[in-house]
Automatic annotation (TrEMBL):
Record lineage: Bacteria, Pseudomonadati, Pseudomonadota, Alphaproteobacteria, Hyphomicrobiales
GO biological process: amino acid catabolic process
Name listed for the protein in its UniProt record: Galactonate dehydratase
Gene3D superfamilies: Enolase-like C-terminal domain (3.20.20.120), Enolase-like, N-terminal domain (3.30.390.10)
Classification via InterPro entries: DgoD-like, Enolase-like_C_sf, Enolase-like_N, Enolase_C-like, Galactarate_dehydratase_3, Mandel_Rmase/mucon_lact_enz_CS, Mandelate_racemase_C, Mandelate_racemase_N_dom
Keywords associated with the record: Lyase
Source organism superkingdom: Bacteria
Keyword Lyase annotated: yes
Amino acid sequence: MRTTKLETFMQRVDDRPRLLVRIETDEGIVGWGEAYNHGPDKALAPVIEYLFEQFKNDDPRRVTFINQKLIQQSRFPPGALGLAAIAAIDHALWDIAAKAAGVPVYMLLGGHVRDRVRVYCGVYSAPDPEEAVPAILKLNADYGFTAFKLSPYRRNLYNGRWGALCEEAGNYLGELRRRLPTDFEFCFDAHAKIYEPNQALQLAKALEPHDPLFLEEPIRPEHIPAWGALRQQMGTVPLATGESLYSRYEFLALLNARGADIIQPDICVVGGLTEMRRIADLADAHYVSVAPHNPMGPLATAHNVHFCAAQVNFRFLEYKFAKEASWATDPYIPVDGHLELRPDRPGWGIEIDESRLKQDDYIHWERIMATKPDGSTAYP
């Protein structure tokens, strides 16, 4: 079997651009992968098309060989765009390999260690309790969710006293605890907006009395020693991070610094399933669990389902509903707070309607740059 053709399709999932990759073989088997457009979004397709020349006519079932080949062919270590491109290719190759064998992808990983994958729902904001409580109860009633992710910021975090913002966040979690079932779990994503570690510690201490599931990415990812120091002072609040890290070497540095209780690598960022498993195994050796970052489309969720099904130290998967993704005819939908495996479907277990991809459905999106009261810029 040989790879013969690669195509990219610029699509949208709700208000975000998403890039799909299709790889064809001389035996008629087709594989699909989803790319993370986290850089200049239109720059990704040419990178993927360029990389195809490095493995055109190779046996696509040699997934690890091709993944390593694409990483090593670059003189300098690939970064955000390079590894996102490699991830999409890697996933299409796993799809082909599993379809050729007639099994789900997770069976090529040693089989599933769990029968279904637990998910938590990303709310991504901090709605008032009067709005949040009925919305959370409906998500529980409709899909069985018992874990939810919110923002800790109840207002503009650059205006007013920081201690007051932290107090408001703690009171907010306390109010949700008072109004909702005791077995519900709440985590908070600070989106790496906090510059000073001491401020992150203040926020953690405010949340701590109400038992948060974890505090995610409170500070910037670049200086690993700061994560180790922060973790040692955070008490019983689990510290989670990893969506902004790329390779197993960066994760190893984080783990060696004891900088996280839970790591959150993104399978579409780190170079694909091949590299994701290496990262997760490193974490397992440090008694650290894995909760993949997954704000993507239905195909990326499928990639994650198979990783999570086969990974021993998996904890839970982020899930985001896709309202506009017509190309995914049968996405994984939560049942009882879990995504069920599809053992009778080879590959990723999801069908792509190619007729919906005939025209690029591109939408431009970029983060809004935050501005402080003095006019200086801040992380969005």
